[in-house]
Amino acid sequence: MTRSIDFSKEPEGCVTLPAVLLAGPTASGKTSLSLELFRAMSGHMPVEIVNGDSMQVYRHMDVGTAKPTPLERSLVPHHLLDIADPDENFDAARYLAVARPKIEELRSRSTLPLVVGGTGLYMRVLTRGICSGPPSDPQGKERLISLEKSRGLAHLYQDLSRVDPLSAQKIHPNDRQRIIRALQVFYSGGVALSLLQKSHGFSQELFPTIKIFINRERDALYERINRRVDQMLAEGLKAEVERLFSMGYGPELKSMQSIGYRQMAAHLAGAISMDEAAFEIKRETRRYAKRQITWFRGDAEFRCFEAEDVEGIYRHIRQGIERMGRQQ
User: Fold this and answer.
1) Distance CA 252, CA 213 (A)
2) What is the CB neighbour count within 10 angstroms for residue 57?
3) Range of the domain at 154
4) Cβ atoms within 10 A of the Cβ of 5, count?
5) Which of 113, 214, 222, 282: disulfide with 103, CB 3.0–4.6 Å?
6) Total of domains in the chain
């Protein structure tokens, strides 16, 4: 796919490399594309991949997160995979704390960081910093969790819509973690999260970037999602969840509430059949992909390419590097 690219020249005028962000919805082909780009660029500059997916940070969760295979990881250095246990609290702030130094370290040795993932918030804080809210309030969080158990998540979402309607508009009614966090911010500090985010503005550029969003036609993407779920089930998602349970990681954990793991836990508990679990995983993954597309298309800094356009993506990266080099 990349044979027609002219590799005869090095990028001109490059002094300090940017970070390349390669984003896209789940099952769009980010991993295979990242390897294609590595092969295209590695003859001219060192390239290493940095994980930008919120689930692939967890150890022991490989099948359900579509983590790069051992073979793929042997072809190019990968960073920020398997850096947290499933019962650890890993959020955007912690991601920034580990990802920013890694990217700066790669850039300091003239290595191109290729950040690959579909977690929009991670991509945003990585390039624009993070909006710091009130200090963590474990007791307040426990009260909200208790209220959810007694009144339901819909009640919490209605409460959020009342105290912070702007945040409620941006948060899916089933996004338990973000609903609870937004309510925590309000009840801990008396200020809506949306106001804190507005004042921050996410305008702090931490380092130069080239942002790429890969797109697929909707029906083709949904078909890829269905095939991926079937592949996960064939590769042992059920056994992976059983193993996690045997290690003491229960279904109540944040990591185990993610798509795939939540449905498989319900199947193992006897609540749904395997066919129902597969159906729900596919449906929820399609819904998640739609939210990812909406997020990244709302960021004008991301340049959209069709997933098969490896040559166009490569040229865009190369031109961006040369342009930034001339500006330095």
Assistant:
1) 33
2) 27
3) 138-200
4) 14
5) 113
6) 2
